[in-house]
Amino acid sequence: MVAYKYPVSRFGEKELEENNTITLYENINIIKMTVAEESIKAFSIPEEFLTFYYEPSEEEMSFYRSLVE
Q1: Which of 27, 29, 31, 46 has the fewest beta carbons under 10 Å from its own?
Q2: φ, ψ for residue 63 (rounded to 5)?
Q3: Contacts of 66 (CB under 8 A, 6+ apart)
Q4: 6-65 tens-digit pLDDT
Q5: pLDDT confidence of residue 48
Q6: Helix (H, G, I), strand (E, B), or coil: what is residue 6?
Q7: In this structure, what are the phi and psi dihedrals at residue 5, rounded to the nearest 5 degrees?
Q8: What angle do CA 38, 31, 68 make, to 5 degrees?
Q9: Contact 50, 35 (CB under 8 A)
Q10: DSSP 29
């Protein structure tokens, strides 16, 4: 799943910007979340610091699966 956001500024581009990507894996309760480099404007951060893995609660995992189905 990819999440987008509108730019915060009142002027300039009004195109949607990628904010983050959530990856669900089959048969395991692990989520991979990757923050888009474009969403951090102030400075550059290496990609390995923009990727997170975590084990969500069963309720959160059910919510994400309901969005995908």
Answers
A1: 27
A2: -60, -50
A3: none
A4: 777 667 667 888 899 999 998 888 999 999 987 787 888 888 899 999 999 999 999 988
A5: 86
A6: coil
A7: -140, 155
A8: 85
A9: yes
A10: -
